[in-house]
Amino acid sequence: MIDVQQVSKVHLRGRLEVPALKEITCQIPTGSFTFILGPSGSGKSTLLYLLGALDEPTSGTITVHGKSLQAMTAGERDHFRREDAGFIFQNFNLLANLTALENVLVPFLPGGVSREQRDKASQLLERLGLGSRREHRPNQLSGGEQQRVAIARALLKRPKLVLADEPTGELDTANSLAILGDLRTLCLEQQSTVVVVTHEHEYIQPGDHVIRIRDGRIAERDGQASV
């Protein structure tokens, strides 16, 4: 599904060039649950943002479903982010003045929310154990509940690609395992490809695809996890 070829990313800090990625080449299979592993500052989140067309590489190419992200127009990249990619962030990015249900529906608000979309959002919250919390605002929810709302928001449009940046970074181990379990189940049902950035190894299961990054480079050959 995703082919990354010789991708580099350089950030400018005034006149100083700071390399974040250095000629990264890797592939992410369709339908896989892929982990991008690496210590803080290794470049793993930078790679995730490039995969989601939230940023552009300094050099190299990223191809998704045979289409180069770099060759897309600004409008085509907007469409890709809006329709084909779902994003889950560590800090949840929920709107404080909206209920859990309204936060799930946020991506659809500009075009108007249909009854069908509202019903599906409600059902998705029910699946995630938040049926009784639909009308609660973020400050009335635990960290794990807020992350489940963020997952529901990302998955409501049934995206082909789900990108999660340290989605369990603010949660304890029990909540983290439950959250990733929910994500696995729902994405398998929707046949979404999932890419999760983390520095934790204990969440990897046999058959998961693993890419390890260190100092902006692939640290070792990526492939399926055996343990």
Question: Can you summarize this structure?
Answer:
It contains six helices and ten strands.
Description:
The protein is of the alpha/beta class and about 230 residues long. The chain has a single domain (about 1-225), classed as Rossmann fold. The chain contains six helices and ten strands; from the N terminus they run E-E-E-H-E-E-H-E-H-H-H-E-H-E-E-E. It has helices spanning about 45-50, 75-85, 100-105, 115-125, 145-155, 175-190; strands spanning about 1-15, 15-30, 35, 60-65, 65-70, 85-90, 160-165, 195-200, 210-215, 215-225. The strands form two sheets. A six-stranded mixed beta sheet has the order 6-7-8-3-9-10, sandwiched between helices. The chain has a four-stranded antiparallel beta sheet with strand order 2-1-4-5, with helices on one face. Strand 9 (about 210-215) and strand 10 (about 215-225) form a beta hairpin. The longest helix has 18 residues, at about 175-190. The radius of gyration is 18 Å and the shape is globular.
